[in-house]
Amino acid sequence: MKKVLIDTDCGIDDAIAILMALACKDFEVVGITTVSGNVYVDKVNQNVLRLLSFLNREDIPVFRGASGPLSQKPVRAETIHGKDGLGSVFLPETQKSLESQNAIEGIYLLAKQNPGLTIITLGPLTNIAMAVNLYPELNHLMGNIIAMGGAIDRGNVTRYAEFNFYADPESVQYVLNTPIPMEIIPWDPCAEQMFTEEEIKALIPENNRVGDLFLSLQQLPFSFVEKYYGVRSTILPDPCAMAYAIDEKVALRKLVGDIRMELNCNTHRGETVQCEGDRMNIILKLDRIKFLNILKTILIL
Ligand code: BDR
Ligand code: CA
């Protein structure tokens, strides 16, 4: 069993990625840490707690994380994820509460209990940077980081920058400066995988409550994409990253390389700049069929 911790700004596609991790027979999700990103952290907490209750997985501890980025004003993505972060989809109220420790302490405790822990990040890297700063032992306790973030050719927030890395580029650079093994699934290979409403509907059997949730969650992204491209479709960046974490064979092409963040306050701020080195794997292309097969596993939950 691979022990994983998910750090998330949950988020419509984050919610689906969490479902995938919970459906994965090879994963033990030892904890979830929340972070401000798509929406403010209090909303992220509610989304994660409600999702876990809906799935009868209240055993998984949830730790409240950073309320904003290290050194800039917050950036949100409410046009894509809705004001509550989950497109106003109905998830019942929950009795489950947050752990008393914060996300930084949670990451440290869980990494100490599970040396070699894999951290899967689906949002800005604020918590990870703060945790490694406060507890440098994490440099060696953490096994690896698999991050959805960055853009190689074209971003989604600006021409150059992808949301998760743009939302807190200083924290990304901080993490890049550590020796923790890291792999990134940038925006580009995820954006290449667009799924129409028909394709998504075809995956979902009747009377499947997780399938129904998945479809309801996609309504806002479908409408958003329709407005710009004229077709009801969706892109699933966090599920793409989770699929890679579950089975790296989903990557058809990856590059061993290195990146740095553009931190200057100009139009390139938040850009993923490729540089010399072999710091990490950068995923460049995904296998659509393999991805869909992993995605479909959520229907067993
Ligand atoms: C990333 O930004 C967020 O809006 C998504 O949840 C994903 O993590 C894609 O750029
Ligand atoms: Ca996310």
UniProtKB/TrEMBL annotation:
EC number(s) from the headed UniProt entry: 3.2.-.-
One Pfam family here: IU_nuc_hydro
Residue span(s) of domain Inosine/uridine-preferring nucleoside hydrolase: 4-292
Domain of life: Bacteria
Biological classification of the source: Bacteria, Bacillati, Candidatus Lithacetigenota, Candidatus Psychracetigena
Signal peptide: none
Protein name: Pyrimidine-specific ribonucleoside hydrolase RihA
One example of a Gene Ontology biological process annotation: purine nucleoside catabolic process
Enzyme class, broadest EC rank: hydrolase
MF (Gene Ontology): purine nucleosidase activity
A cellular-component GO term for this protein: cytosol
Keyword Cell cycle included in the entry's annotation: no
Keywords assigned by UniProt, alphabetized: Glycosidase, Hydrolase
